[in-house]
Amino acid sequence: VSGGGRLRFSNHAFERCDERGVTPRDAEFALLRGTITVEPTYDTNYRNWSVVVEAELLDFRLRVVAAIDELPLRNQLEVVVVSVIAVLSLRGSLCRLVVRQAAPYL
Fold first, then answer.
1. Side-chain half-sphere of 104: how many Cα atoms within 13 Å?
2. Sign of the CA dihedral 106, 17, 19, 54?
3. pLDDT band with cut points at 50, 70 and 90 for residue 1
4. Is the Cα torsion angle 84, 89, 94, 97 positive or negative in sign?
5. Average of per-residue pLDDT across 60-86
């Protein structure tokens, strides 16, 4: 993406961002500045690569799953954010999702 590729989010990724209280910009930051934490794998069904990236933001660690597709007609790559699978507080191991959902009942 930083080299001129295209970035887009699946509907599932938008839903996970909303559930976990993060923004698509947070996920984009993780992809641009994060560390690959799981060896990239090639999916023969979709003919693309998938990658898991983690990054520390201000007060939480974000894990993002993305697929990398080639767009041969445009001679560029498209990175599709597939899911935001973990949001962990840097102050403890609680997921922000749990804290967010529990708050109305306090």
1. 2
2. negative
3. low
4. negative
5. 81
For 68-97, what is the mean pLDDT? Answer: 70
Match 């001129």 to its residue by tokens: 4
- Span between the terminal Cα atoms of the chain, in Å: 42
| Chain segment 3-38, per-residue pLDDT in tens | 567 888 999 999 989 988 889 999 999 999 999 998
Per the structure block, which two tokens stand in for 81?
A: 């954010």
Q: According to the 3-state scheme, what is the secondary structure of 64-100?
A: EEEEEEEECCCCEEEEEEEEEEEEEECCCCCEHHHHH
Smallest CA-to-CA distance from 28 within 17, 37, 20 is with 17
What burial class does residue 10 get, using C-beta atoms within 10 Å of its C-beta: 0-12 exposed, 13-18 middle, 19+ buried?
middle
Output the six-digit token pair for 79. 């990175």
Two tokens, residue 49: 């690569």
